What we know:
With 275 residues, this protein is α/β, with parallel strands linked by helices. Helices cover 39% and strands 18% of the residues. It has 8 helices and 9 strands. Strand 2 and strand 3 form a beta hairpin. Bound molecules: pyridoxal-5'-phosphate (PLP). Residues 11-12, 14, 19-20, 43, 45, 50, 80-81, 109, 111, 114-116, 217-218, 220-221 line the site of pyridoxal-5'-phosphate.
Amino acid sequence: xxxxxxxxxxxxxxxxxxxxxxxxxxxxxxxxxxxxxxxxxxxxxxxxxxxxxxxxxxxxxxxxxxxxxxxxxxxxxxxxxxxxxxxxxxxxxxxxxxxxxxxxxxxxxxxxxxxxxxxxxxxxxxxxxxxxxxxxxxxxxxxxxxxxxxxxxxxxxxxxxxxxxxxxxxxxxxxxxxxxxxxxxxxxxxxxxxxxxxxxxxxxxxxxxxxxxxxxxxxxxxxxxxxxxxxxxxxxxxxxxxxxxxxxxxxxxxxxxxxxxxxxxxxxxxxxxxx
Length: 275
Ligand code: PLP
C-alpha cells in the first residue's frame, strides 16, 4: 500500500472545530491526505464568535515545527491564523528552511479578522505576512475585505469592488508582493464568484451559486485546505481551485444545524457503510 501524502496546517485552535487547525485536519483527511498541525493560538470561541485570543509562545511554535518536520516532512503547507508578528517571523523562517530543501506548495489564507469582528493578526504581523510569507506561497486566498486591507486601501462605504476592478486589485497585490497567485474568494460577496489571478495568464473567474445558510463558520479555512489538498494530490492550480469550490459548496449544502451562532460546515461526510 502506498503511503499517504502529508499536509501540514499552521493555524489557530477553534474549540468548536468550525475553523482553524481541527477543521483543516478534517478537510485533509477527507481528501485522502494525512494531516498534521501546529497551533499558533488558542481561542475562546464557539459558533457565537471569538471572545479571546491567546497566542502560543513563538519559541515553542518554532520547536514544534522543526521537531515535527524532521520526522514527518510535509508535502504541502497551509497557513491560516498567525496572531502576532513574532509568530509570523517564526513561520516565515520555518517555511524558508523547509522550501530550501524541497519547494513544496504553500497556501496562505490571510486571516486578519474573524467574521464576528475579533482581530486575528496584529498590524506588524500584516507587514511580515506581506513581505516575508507571501513571496514563499504558491497562492494566497483573501476575501474582498482582506484584499483591500493587504493593499492598504481602506474599505470605503461602497460595496466592495468586483469585475475588472477586482482583477486589477488582485494583480496589484501579486506584483507588489511576489506571491505566485492570488485567489480572491467570493463566498461572502453578493455574487459568490472566486477570482484566480496568476502572472502572465488571463484572470480566471470561478462562478459560484449562493447557498442560503447560517452555517458558514470556517468557510475560508475549508477552502484553503481543500485547495492545498488538490495541489498536494497533483492537480494544477485552476483545477484544484474548482474542486475546492465544489467541495465547500457541498459542505455548505449539507451543513448540520449546530450551535446558536454561525454553525460549522459538513467537512467530513460520514462513511457510507454497507448495510
Ligand atoms: N478562529 C480561527 C482559529 C481561525 O483560523 C479562523 C479563520 O481562519 C477564524 C476563527 C475565523 O473564522 P470565521 O471567519 O468563520 O469567523
